Amino acid sequence: MFRKFDRDQRITIAIFAAIAVVVLVLALSIKKSAGFNTILLGLFYGCQYSLIAMGLSIIYSSTRVINFAQGELSVLGGAFFLTFVQRASVPMLLAFILAVLVVASIGALFERAAIHPLKDSSIITMIIMTIGFSIFLRGIIKWVWGANALPVEPFTHGPPLHFLGATVERQSIWVFGFTFLVVIAVYFFFNRTLLGKGMRAAAENPDAANLVGVSPSRSSLIAWTMAAALGAAAGVMFAPKTLVSWDQGVWLGVKGFSAAVLGGLGNVMGAVVGGLTLGVLEFVVLMFIKPEYQNIIALSVLIVVLLLRPQGIIGKTESLTV
Amino acid sequence: MTTSGSGNPPATANRSEKEKSLKHLARDNSDYVILLVVSLFLLTVPIWADYVSTFIMDAMIEAGIFAIVVIGLNLLFGYAGQISLGHAAFVGIGAYTTALLCTRITGFPTWFALILGGLLAGLIGLVIGIPVLRLKGHYLALATLAFGLIFTELLKTQNSVSNQSNGGIGGIPNFSIFGLTLKSKIMSSTGYYLLIWIIALLVVLFTINLIRSRVGRGLRALHSSEIAADTMGVNTRNYKVKVFVISAVLAGLCGGLWALSSGRIEASMFDLRYSILFVTMVVIGGMGNIWGGMMGAIALTFITKILELQIPQWIPNRPSWLADPGNIAVVLYGLLLILFMLFLPKGITFGLSRLGTFSKQGGSRVKDRLRAIRYRGG
Amino acid sequence: MADDIILEIDNITKMFGGLAALKDVEFSVSRGEIKAVIGPNGAGKTTLFDVLTGVQRSTSGRVFLKDIDITRTKPHRITELGMARTFQTVKLFEGMTALENAMVGCHSWTKRGFISNGLVLLWALAEERRIYQHAFEVLKDVGLGTRAAELGTNLPYGQMRMLEMARALASKPEILLLDEPAAGLNPYETGELSSLLLKVRESGVTILIVEHDMGLVMDISDEVVVLDYGEVIARGTPAEVQNDPRVIEAYLGIEA
Amino acid sequence: MFWKKRGFKLFVVVMVVTTASLLLSAGCKPKKASGAEYKVGVVISTTGPNGPLGTPEQQALTLYEKQLNDNGGINGRPIKFIILDDASDPTKASSAMTDLVKSQNVLAVIGSSGTGTTMPMVDIAQQANVPLEACAAGIKVTTPTPGGPPNKWVFRTPPTDAMAAEKVADYLASGLKVKKVAILYDSNPFGSSGNEVLKALLPTKDMEIVSDQSYETKATDMTPQLNNVKGTDAQALIVWGTNPAPSAIAKNMKQMGMTIPFVGSHGIANMTFVEQAGDAANGAVFPAGRMAIPESIPEGTEWRDVVDKFRADFKAEYGSEPNTFAGHGWDAGVIIANALKISGEDRSKLRDEIENTKDFAAVDGVFNYSTKDHNGLNADDLIMVKVVNGQWQWLKY
Fold first, then answer.
1. How far apart are CA D95 and CA D86, in angstroms?
2. Which of B7, B38, B302 sits opposite D11 (nearest CB)?
3. Geometric angle at alpha carbon C209, from C205 and C213, rounded to 5°
4. Do B335 and A250 touch (CB under 8 A)?
5. Could you give the residue ranges of the DSSP H alpha helices within chain B?
6. Is the distance from CB of B121 to CB of B255 less than 8 angstroms?
7. Is A292 helix (H, G, I), strand (E, B) or coil?
8. Is residue B22's pLDDT more than 80?
9. Touching B: which chains, 3+ CB pairs < 8 A?
């Protein structure tokens, strides 16, 4: 995670921060309150990307697998939430927890059924495996919840809040608060708890895994469960805003990849930075260039970072390309 | 690998038999024999297909088009061990090049446009491949994925080129060469069927030659251990890029044929779904198996077509769970990908081709699976 | 003298993070000799080979093969220049027969590419025939002629090592780098190995060998270089080295 | 002796697979048109983005097939709609129509729901000389070149994008009497073509476009664009797109306390918009076929009777009010059946009869096809609808 950066990192971070500041100042000065509003919006969606990217990074760091189904898991979370609330009229909070639990267990199930048995097989196998899982989930979601985008009630009703000339929906307050809590929790888990530290050690040096008492198998299972849970949480929190639709998973996943790579694949806290950055970037593009180019920019970022700095903005310099 | 490495003669056999087995090993022509038989068989299809169902020919045309790109991808995945999740983009590049040339320039020779499409795709493949193939595994997958997505996004935004707002580029002329013009698919499928499958079979021939040659061994070596291959004198970087370019050229070719045969192209024909479909075809057909690409393309095209077009006609009023049979194909493919990776990583072609031998070599199924899994450790 | 030096290693240093795996290693191999590099485990022998064959890049220092600077050259190019190697941990190609493994070795002196092979042009066919014959010859030389049709990875361990050597020899090297060829061989096989090595040397191939089996080293090598903690601590004829106090000290406790 | 080798087994495999697929497909060998029933192909988007359009169309057609055949069909012969879903995917639409035309040799084809999916079907109709009754609004469907002659074999039931745009422009000019408008359009084909039409049309009614922005089809928050609109002195906002994005826009406007009128396109003329936007939908105005509000059709006219009957029957069958898309589907069926009465089993005769449809009162309006006009309707067959507490109301102006 963070802590003692080498020189190379500091430079990158500095440059990066500089650019960020310039952009923000620009945005704020040119578009005033509108600019501020847009940036808030960027951060809002950034939270979604962050949560997805965190999941991806957790899985990657402990199993060296990229989960191409992360986006679908997220949609699945929203879908279950919708069902619990609207069909079974379960109270919101309970429905939230239930949805997350269900999806988490699905993630765990998949890990045991498909990832664990092939843990030391080639990367291609793993990629195809998770791609298969994503296709499968997409189909199931369409099958069960139908092809139309389904609306979901926001957590709390009421008029939006205004401050500094920006309009903020109540839902986004929930999202910001919740994401913050999750990030803190995850950080705490990986830095304070024995298990989390063990998983990190195991991730950094697989041979040492058994020394720190966390078997790769166990940490892989935990990682997948956590990732699925994070995805689901994101899905639930954004369902009222984005509606629930079977075909959202692909782009969610892609944005997640961009965010995760931006923050350095496997760097969980980096994923948060990456996600927020990507969110803001997208909306700055929308404001200054053209809305259609949002996605293109997000993707270009992915490619550029992959080629120039595969270890991410704050990642340590290590050749991943050999 | 079907080329050789198949027959393992018992260690006890005497010298002369060895020599024979070696001759067989060096010049195992079974692939050519199959190619011949398969070609002959495919040539007969137009004669009887329509008596069974007119949908066969159209399905086979599509299968043939996909076979061309999938065979290329199989070289990339199965032999060179590199993955690409963006090949639909190369198909698109080929398709748009061909379409634009033929529609914007009146009387532009279609066959030439087809070739140019393939070449341009290859060129872009080179430009993309050189930097991107420095990446490994997941990073490569992500980069190619992003590339593919960017392509479709660009098509959607660049209306002046893609004419998306009016349903894509239409009125693409039919393929014509030496003054003879093919009938459009809707009038008679035979013309395009022959054109496409002849090209597809030539591509298969090319791959067989390649795989059996020095180059093929180099690729398989690089797949197995890059360092070892390199120290044995295989220029791995160079090989990866070349295979990538070849697969791109084939994709471009496939795109051109798709554009000409369907008469109209638009962005959604080249989006992520197809890149993934191609991957699925490679995997289910059999990675690293010369016939895998073809088998995968045919099998999946037929499954899809039957579910999307035939089921609704057989069962007009369906129960709600069967309301959208096309979606069942999606679920099925997802499941198949997972199951194949778990139990039949070498694909149906390998699996079926072994069925016969299971009885003879008891329990070899298990052994194969274990070995296969061990192999994929590389 | 200088003209029949085939491989010259000039102050090679290789750092891993903080610590040095190789420190100012400097020696040369002259044409036709069998030189052994010995040293306790972790002395940096394999690292040295990796640096020499371009698998790893040295931090400083240079390597000359036939007076050509190959310090920054790619492995495949080095093989083409006439230096082949085997690996300490067998790296045979999966799913390929013994013969095919050897045929891959022929890459360095063949050149037909994708197009000519894909279109089976005549010259490509001719080349294939040459490859096949040469590879089969080499297999016979190492005594695997009868095993040619078997999957390399299915061979018994000893024969795998032999196959690795065959694969390296198939590239028609002028100098052969062997990384612990005798590891895991039984005495009989080791005997065969040493006679094979001598035969190879007869055919004019220089050999640089890393080996733990002192017996083998003493039998065949003309000169021995002793590495310890990445430094050359002694060099000379086997006899000289054996009595060198520093060598004995280095080996004490490790292989007493 | 290759049959000893794996190669031969592989060959066997190829054979097995192919024969297997053949056996499978053998099932769909068309029963040679026994002369019993008139086969009409239907390719619509019951799933995918255009699902909300295609589903009611399918319902209406199924209903019509049932009704017609219960009442003795056409000249005593039943009609059969072979309905295929194109999942809003042009490629699927194309292969579906190909299959219907070739293996089912249908007399005519209905569909598809969206312009994107209909275009390839138009190509096929023109090549194979099969009458196509489209349910898509894109102007290019019937008129390849602006002002040029219509596609010989292609007709349509819904009002065109152009008509909708015309209606909207008319409403802005004479209804709202605004001079400055802002446009917010979807970057997909529907939106961008609509935007082109509007940009050409509005100035002619001396209105100024003060802001012209697009949004990404999947976008779920348009606050930034709306902020730009806020910055201008626009008196009304035209939103040209299909669900769900417009509902998000409506929500945003409510949050930002924007009060200028929300004028939508016919692309949101279904209840999905109201469901998704919730109470933010209130006040939204958009063009829709008169059938949506029967009162808008003069009492006693044949058209009114048709609409009333249709609404009643549809509600009886499916328990929900039909929307305009159901009307498009129904009319396509009715027009073809009507033409079949005279033409009989002959595609080109059928085409001519469809072209001869004159003063034919259907659900969407009174159809008048001619050699020059394959759209049949005009802007007056549309009305402006306003959402008032979740319900549609006829907006007279």
1. 9
2. B38
3. 135
4. no
5. 15-26, 30-52, 54-74, 87-104, 110-132, 137-157, 159-162, 190-212, 214-224, 226-231, 236-262, 272-285, 292-305, 311-314, 325-343, 347-360, 364-375
6. yes
7. coil
8. no
9. A, C, D
Q: Tell me, yes or no, whether C68 lies in a domain.
A: yes
Please compute the mean of the pLDDT values over residues C79-101 and round it to a whole number.
85
Q: What percent of chain A has pLDDT over 90?
A: 36
Say whether pLDDT at C234 is over 60.
yes
- DSSP for C18-29, written as a single string: TEEEEEEEEEEE
Domain D38-159+300-378 has CATH 3.40.50.2300: yes
Q: What pLDDT sits at residue B377?
A: 34
Q: Decide if D214 and A142 are in contact by the 8 Å CB cutoff.
A: no
pTM: 0.88
Could B146 and A254 be called an inter-chain contact, meaning their C-beta atoms sit closer than 8 Å?
Answer: yes
The pLDDT tens digits of the residues spanning B134-192 come to: 888 888 999 999 999 999 999 888 888 888 877 788 888 888 888 788 888 888 888 89
CB pairs under 8 A between B and D: 192
When divided into structural domains, chain C yields a total of: 2
User: Does the interface predicted TM-score (ipTM) exceed 0.90?
Assistant: no
What's the pLDDT score for residue D29?
Answer: 43
Q: Of B299, B245, B246, which Cα lies nearest the Cα of B277?
A: B299
Of residues B120 and C156, the one with the higher pLDDT is B120
Cβ atoms of C173 and C166 within 8 Å: the answer is no
Q: Point out the residue among B167, B306, B309 whose CB comes nearest to the CB of D119.
A: B167
Pair of tokens at residue D343 = 């033409």
Which of C129, C146, C172 corresponds to the end of one domain? C172
B10 at A interface, C-beta within 8 A: no
Residue D117 above 50 pLDDT? yes
**Chain-centre distance of CA D172, in angstroms?**
24
Residue type, C149: A
Q: How far is B13 from chain C (nearest CA, A)?
A: 9
User: Is it the case that chain A and chain C have 3 or more CB pairs lying under 8 Å apart?
Assistant: no
Residue of B nearest to C98 (CA): B5
Cβ D64 vs Cβ D333: under 8 Å: yes
The per-residue pLDDT for B372 is: 43
Interface touch D18/B165, C-beta < 8 Å? no
What is the set of domains in chain A, with CATH numbers?
Answer: 7-19+29-308 (1.10.3470)
Q: What is the pLDDT of residue C56?
A: 85
Residues 241-300, chain A, touching B (beta carbon < 8 A): 250, 254, 257-258, 261, 265, 290, 292-293, 295-296, 299-300
Chains D and B touch (3+ CB pairs under 8 A): yes
Can you give the pLDDT at residue C252? 60
CA B370 – CA D41 distance, rounded (Å): 51
Top-confidence residue, C45 or B10: C45
Mean pLDDT confidence for B214-241: 88
Residue of D nearest to B3 (CA): D7
8 Å CB contact between B330 and D50:
no
Separation in Å, CA of B221 to nearest CA in chain D: 22
What tokens does B152 get? Answer: 């479709």
Contacts of D225 in chain A (CB under 8 A): 286, 291
Q: Count other C-beta atoms under 10 Å from residue B178's C-beta.
A: 6
Q: Which domain holds residue C147?
A: 92-172
Any chains having at least 3 CB pairs less than 8 A from chain C are B
* CATH number listed for the domain at residues D162-292+383-394: 3.40.50.2300
